[in-house]
Amino acid sequence: MSTDGARRPEEKQRGPVVLRRERRNEPTTTDQRLLDSRGPSDWVHTDPWRVMRIQAEFVEGFGMLAELPRAVTVFGSARTPRDHPEYAQGRALGTALAEAGFAVITGGGPGVMEAANKGCSDAGGLSVGLGIELPFEQGLNDWVDLGINFRYFFARKTMFVKYSQAFVCLPGGFGTLDELFEALTLVQTKKVTKFPVVLLGSEYWGGLYDWIATTVLGAGKVGEKDLALLHLTDDVDDAVKIVQDAWRAWEEAH
């Protein structure tokens, strides 16, 4: 009986799940379904099973990257050809970061990502690639020394943020913009601290920076401190100095 005197509905326990009324009428138990090798295999595509895959991606990522040295994530377009000046700049950035003692993390793909990985690898640094399952990109580039392929963007993004001390964004498309603004949001809301975000290439990024500085700031949607989270430069050495200064400030605070 319930506290108000009414009869409690019949129920069935399925682990932590409570099934009442018509929902409790199941022809088999969870153990029985687990041990029965017959029947359809659709269950491997269900949401509860996906949770296990998601958990596995986090465990694998945390396990592989836990002892990663200080690192910087470089974002940029997968569509940048090897003979483009932005590719050369990405390669120079990878080299400069490695020489400054940072591992380089990218999305592991072609274009600017490949360039940064190659520059880092050529300079003897640790070159890391966090790939993603996409219908139009194939595997990790040849200059990744340590790599993981992810199914889920959100698991991959967690690794970028957790194991980086800074983001440097070269010209890129929607993916780069997504990663840029997510990083800014995390820094603005203090989910991560002492985390510089550098835009490398004023000709490409200048219009976006000006729009934020005039329209967005002018409308009161961000503050002056928020705008200061972004660093716009054309110089690889300047980008590396911004990263180094932020790292030293973090070390002094800890």
TrEMBL record:
Pfam families: Lysine_decarbox. InterPro entries: LOG, LOG_fam, LOG_family_nucleotidases. It comes from the Bacteria. Residues 1-26 have a biased composition (Basic and acidic residues). Keywords: Cytokinin biosynthesis, Hydrolase. Residues 1-41 are annotated as: Disordered. Its EC number is 3.2.2.n1. It catalyses: N(6)-(dimethylallyl)adenosine 5'-phosphate + H2O = N(6)-dimethylallyladenine + D-ribose 5-phosphate; 9-ribosyl-trans-zeatin 5'-phosphate + H2O = trans-zeatin + D-ribose 5-phosphate. PANTHER family: CYTOKININ RIBOSIDE 5'-MONOPHOSPHATE PHOSPHORIBOHYDROLASE. Belongs to the LOG family. This is Cytokinin riboside 5'-monophosphate phosphoribohydrolase. It comes from Pseudonocardia zijingensis.
